[in-house]
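Two proteins were folded this term; both appear here.
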Amino acid sequence: MAPRNVSWTGIGGSEIQDEAVDESAKVPSENIVTMNGTSTGTKSSPGSNGIRRAHSNRVIAGREEDVELGEVDEPFLPQDRPSPKSRNQSLIAGISYCLSSCSMILLNKVLLSGYNLNAGISLMFYQNLISVLVVLLLDVTGLIVTERITWKLVKVWVPVNILFVCMLVSSIFSLRFMNVAMVTILKNVTNLITAVGEIYFFNRHHSTKVWLSLCVMVLSAVCGGITDLSFHGKGYTYQIINCFCTSAYSLRLRKVMDLAKEKTRTKTLNEFTMVLLNNLLSLPLGLALMFIFETKTLLDSPALKVPMFWGVATLSGLLGLAISFTSMWFMHQTSPTTHSLVGSLNKIPLSLAGIVLFRVPTSFPNLISIFFGLFAGVLFARAKMS
């Protein structure tokens, strides 16, 4: 049994494309390709998660054998214990992953609300463009290895990329109208939709613990919405659309993976190729949507005349890509189990920071609903591991 993965193949919504896709299926393993192109063992193929631009968003490779999940029968020998240096690297990797993930969401909120930017599609386009340029630069310098992008591969990937763009755009718009804490809680509904989709499409059934935690998630989301003092109909509509888009992306990605591998020269599809594919193919569609819906809005936006805005927007694009790399680094240093649990716990400081930094009006019942939902997320992560 291969451990689950979390897929972050995009940026815009970041948790959005993050936690946005926390529901990957157990699929066949393949060779893991390191940043210098060498093979280090096996991993399970990435699914969706996820989110995280997202909502993402970015692919995290899992390990085939996971001691924490009880899938290795060999005895634990003293020499197998992690060294202090290894523990330090795991700590640094975990902190880096948490900081990049939280910072991405908060920066997007600053761009959309602080600078009053009403052009979410344009923001997604710019962030994805930054990702493409950085990945291509790393590929040219030999720091990472990507598969050659061919028309055969593009034709297979376009349908899932359309869902990817819808996921990012809806996530960005929901973040504009809603506070960070409620966006985080409502994203939990994605897990329920994905779980139902897994039964229908993959005939995959879940334990009673998983369904109970999903029910708690949905209950907390409903209670949170009822007690939300900053309730915005548009924001909640966009977030519900985002939940369905994220789930559809997650489920569709699992079917496309095997088809896409057959269209590559090496018959594999590593994480960096997926990041490049998703972000590169999103640019033409994003550009078309910009011209149709945001041309006048974008040109009239006062934020474009502020140099600091461009600095923050560029940083958010770089952070979106950083989530991919820190996620993979953290996964390789620890395990899928630890990664999933830390991802759930990471929502707690993110929600608190969103409430404090943006001075969100709240009430005691609303805070209870939020923390109830965050606690349900941790229960869900633990239930999926058992």
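Next, the second protein.
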Amino acid sequence: MFSRRLLHTVRLGTATLAVLASGSGQALDVRVLIQEGASVPVRLLGTGGAPQASAPVWKVEVRGSELALNGKSAGSSTLYVPPSPGSRVQIGSKVYRGGVLLRLNRGKVQGINVVNVEDYLRGVVPAEMPALWPEAALESQAVVARTYVTQRVNPAQPFDICAGTNCQMYPGIDGEHERTNAAIDATRGEVLTYGGQLADTYFSANSGGYTASAAEVWGKNLPYLIAKPDPQSVTASGERGRWQITVSPAKLNSAATAYRLNVGTVRRVSFGQTSASGRVEEVTVVGSSRTSTLKGASAGGFVRALGAPSSRARVDSSSPLRLSGQGSGHGVGLSQYGALGFAREGRSHRDVLGFYYPGTVVQALHYQPVAAATQSAPVLNAVTGAGP
């Protein structure tokens, strides 16, 4: 029964967390926060070879300082069913590969999917990029997504990553596709590094023809995340890469409030200085009580808060406020439409990664068997450069 399996492994110590970090020694397990609330429904669905279609639903909820299963105290604030080959679990309304970790956090239940990183990617990659795009684009996304999550694995934290747009979209098994599965298999274990460390592999939908630097968007100086022309994004996206929006007064005042400008009712917005990539770096907001100016990364964030797909934007009219521009997303790192353009030209995923993360290296992850809690980190072995 579910409760019996859980109660055999209810307390997670340092050694258990080390196992979660390193998996079986063959691949990396990651912990994905799927759901948090007053209760979390869970079903153990067995494995592909031994499915349990009629498995009961267990309602996991809070009872004092402990968790309860279908109203009965579990005697612990943490419950864990580890992943096994082919295992599947339903957390909330969706089905995931791997196992489940349930924990009490500030009066709520956290439902966390513990899953092999390669299986995790099977849900992520088609959720982040259209599965019918060319192989090189999908392989680029797989390496970027693998690096992104591997960098965030931290046994000292209760989970490594979330399942929504603030992290990487992860809809579970229902989102998988055979073409993205093939891209994940073709790049198995590949990650990007810089100076021997995992790289920050930010990505967005469309750079709008010019990638942004991490410095201009977030104030982070990273030598491989720079501003540079990106004609492939324009070629691949065409007119879809251009946009125009009208900002309502309510949206405008909401953004001003979010940025604590304290200008009263907003009367007028103007853009000043732009970055090397053509993104807004200065915004002046004139209100009924005062005028305020935002600069740097805050200016770009304000533009996106107005509903603009990108801060590579300009003001077309003030009343009503109309903006137009190019691109979608922050523009740092991989441009997905740019990857599409490179792939259509017959370039490889290493060519794509070398363009968007210059100076990085593609390396293969290999994992040490877990003999002690100290053996919890993946080992990086160099394979080849990311690109020319």
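Residues 1-26, 369-385 have pLDDT under 50 and may be disordered. Residues 203-331 form one domain. These notes refer to the second protein only.
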